[in-house]
Design a protein that fits this description.
Layout: H1 2-14, H2 21-32, H3 38-49, H4 55-78, H5 95-118, H6 136-149, H7 156-167, H8 170-184, H9 196-206, H10 209-218, H11 223-251, H12 253-264, H13 276-294, E1 301-304, E2 308-309, H14 311-318, E3 330-333, E4 339-345, H15 351-363, E5 370-376, E6 380-382, H16 392-402, H17 413-424, E7 432-437, H18 449-457, E8 461-466, H19 480-483, E9 489-492, H20 496-506
Parallel strand pairs: 4-5, 4-7, 7-8, 8-9
Antiparallel strand pairs: 1-3, 2-3, 5-6
Biased composition (Gly residues): 121-138
Pfam family, one: VWA_CoxE
InterPro entries: UCP010256 (IPR011195), Uncharacterised_CoxE (IPR008912)
Length: 507
């Protein structure tokens, strides 16, 4: 048991959940007080290993995958090695489960045929007709409205998807997800699966996902009903992902568990690859990082009433008392508040990364004496006032409409440096740290190197954060090699782990 726990904790660490030795001892102590059941093991892990919001979902997913895979591995080892004792075609479902699913499919077909028979030839809806059998009046109205309002010829799979989403039954959604995965990717295949994103895309195509979603957005349903059905679609997508992960673990358990754990680690996921739910979690961690950095002490030391003993001052004062240190002098670290100027590229390829950088600066503004923020694409504009708003996400979305940074739609670093030098050079002095976030892709336009050199000469240091992979620098229209000699530091900044390390080094 302990060996399996150690393997699972290593999996959690790969997923970005830090687990110390003391926390593992706390887990073992909690397990000694509980009955040895799977539910108690999960509860004990949630109580002793989870420290941040969002980690419980990762723990729950890896827990079920790990112990299900382990159980299947034990079963395979316990199977007889005599080939004659192994059935050629083992049954996949029990008789009761097979009959239950068959009856459920017959009921779906009966409801679909009844809804088609109830419609007149022109596609209208007869007055006073009830809903499908066993669904109640509300469910029947949803199904008939789907048939009436649909302007796209759905396939049978699309009809079934729309009916299940309108009904919202948890059991029906689970059954649809399981059957869709088994239909598209049979379980008896031994070859490794395709890319998970590609497999999910194939599943959605098989279910007519895009057409049903488009119909749902254009349907005359109420807002509450639309939100409910959209939530059902999200639930189905999560279940499809879960079924695909279980399938991958059945095929190659040792390899796929490691891959799934690394995919769950948001610290190493590229900002541009995050889904909306993951973006919220990463923004929460970036804001927490900003608050920690805002209270971080600098390296300069000043006299204090308590803290570390200041040896030099204590020895000098002891000279007045015959060399005996009667009075101890203390020192503390002074909070540094440098001046900061931030330039963020908000073009299409860099905008997702710039939002996280602006969020970090927004959170720790009180750490600096002076913070001036600028956004640019092919022109530059100051956004310091906008970043003081509480709703930063809405502010970032409105920056391009409120300012004139987007004129041609293509990045032009040369024009940006020229405009910044002529209009905003008064904010530059020897105490300023200039931070630039951009990929240096200039669309084969003039580099403006002479203006950039003058800008760097006026400040204390220049730090460039490039969200593009390092191997792509200086290729095609990237001119990073022209700006690097004038910067003190040039970092690759694509994910939360890199941003955290850079922020602690800079601030």
């Amino acid at each position: 048991m302990v060996e399996h726990l150690i393997g699972f904790i290593q999996l959690l660490r790969q997923a970005g959940i830090p687990v110390s030795t003391g926390e593992m001892l706390d887990l073992l102590q909690a397990l000694s007080l509980l009955e040895p059941t799977r539910e108690n093991l999960l509860l004990a892990m949630q109580a002793t290993l989870i420290k941040e919001t969002g980690q419980e979902r990762i723990l729950d997913k890896l827990f079920h995958l790990y112990w299900t895979t382990l159980k299947q591995k034990v079963r395979k080892q316990e199977q007889p090695t005599n080939k004659a004792a192994i059935p050629i075609h083992p049954p996949r479902l029990s008789r009761e489960e097979f009959n239950a699913r068959l009856a459920q499919m017959k009921e779906w077909l009966r409801q679909a045929l009844k809804s088609e028979d109830d419609l007149p030839a022109g596609g209208g809806e007869p007055a006073g007709q009830g809903g499908g059998k066993g669904n109640g009046p509300g469910e029947g109205r949803r199904e008939r409205h789907f048939q009436h309002g649909s302007s796209v010829p759905f396939s049978a799979a699309g009809q079934r998807l729309a009916m299940i989403i309108a009904k919202g039954s948890e059991e029906d959604i689970k059954t649809l997800a399981r059957e869709a995965v088994i239909t598209l990717v049979p379980l008896d295949e031994d070859t490794p699966g395709e890319d998970p994103l590609q497999m999910l895309k194939q599943l959605k195509t098989h279910l007519d996902w895009a057409q049903v979603k488009d119909w749902l957005e254009r349907s005359p349903l109420g807002e509450a009903e639309k939100l409910r059905q959209q939530e059902n679609l999200l639930r189905l997508e999560r279940l499809l992902n879960r079924e695909l992960e279980q399938l991958r673990c059945k095929r190659q358990p040792e390899k796929e568990l490691q891959v799934i754990a690394r995919e769950a680690n948001l610290s190493h996921r590229c900002f541009a690859e995050l889904d909306p739910e993951q973006v919220i979690q990463v923004k929460r961690q970036v804001a927490r990082l900003g608050r920690r950095l805002a209270t971080r002490r600098g390296y300069r030391r000043i006299p204090a009433t308590r803290g570390v003993v200041d040896i030099s001052r204590t020895v000098r004062l002891a000279a007045t008392t015959g060399g005996v240190p009667i009075i101890l002098c203390h020192q503390g670290r002074q909070a540094t508040r440098p001046d900061l100027v931030v330039l963020c590229d908000l073009s299409g390829s860099v905008a997702p990364y710039s939002q996280f950088m602006l969020l970090l600066v927004h959170t720790m503004q009180n750490k600096f004496r002076m913070v001036r923020s600028y956004a640019f694409v092919d022109a530059i504009a100051e956004i310091t006032v906008q970043l003081r708003e509480l709703d930063l996400e809405r502010t970032v979305r409105n920056i391009q409409r409120q300012t004139g940074i987007w004129q041609t739609g293509f990045s032009d670093y040369g024009a940006v440096w020229r405009q910044f030098f002529h209009e905003h050079r008064h904010v530059l002095h020897r105490k300023v740290t200039l931070i630039i976030l951009g990929d240096a892709r200039n669309n084969y336009k003039p580099s403006g190197e002479e203006y950039f050199r003058e800008i760097c000469r006026r400040v204390r240091q220049v730090i460039w954060l490039n969200p593009a992979p390092r191997e792509s620098w200086n290729q095609e229209d990237s001119i990073m090699h022209l700006y690097t000699p004038y910067c003190r530091h040039v970092f690759e900044c694509r994910n939360l782990s890199q941003l955290t390390g850079i922020a602690r080094q800079i601030f």
